[in-house]
Amino acid sequence: MYKQVSGLLLGFSVFAPHPANAQTFSRDIAPIVFARCAQCHHPGGSAPFSLVTYDAARPHATQMALLTRNRRMPPWKVEPGHGEFIGLDPLSESEIDVIGRWAAAGAPEGNPRDLPATPRWEAGWQLGIPDLVVSFPESYTLPASGPDVSRVFVIPLPVKTRRYVRGIEFMPGNSSVHHANIRLDATAASRRLDADDPEAGYDGVILRSAVYPDGHFLGWTPGQAAPLLPKGLAWSLAPASDLVVQMHMVPSGKPEVIRPSIGLYFTDDPPDRTPVMMRLSNQRIDIPPGDANYEVTDSFVLPVDVEVEAVQPHAHYLAREVRGLALLPDGSSKELIYIRDWDLRWQHVYRYVNPFPLPSGTRVEMRYIYDNSAGNTRNPTQPPVRVPWGQQSREEMGDFWLQVLTKDATDRETLNRLFLAKWMATDAVGLEELIRRQPSRIALRDDIGVLYMLLERPAEAAVHFDASLQLQPNSAPAHYNLATALSGAGRLDEAVAHYRRALELRPSYALAHNNLAVALLRLGQTQDALQHFRDAARFDDNLAEAHLNAGLISRAMGDGVEAAARLRRAVSLSPDWVLAVDSLASLLAAAPDAAVRNPGEAVRLAEHAVELTTRRDANALDIAAVAHASAGNFDRAITLGEEALALNPPSAMTAILQQHLSLFKQRRPYISPR
Question: Model pTM?
Answer without folding.
Answer: 0.77
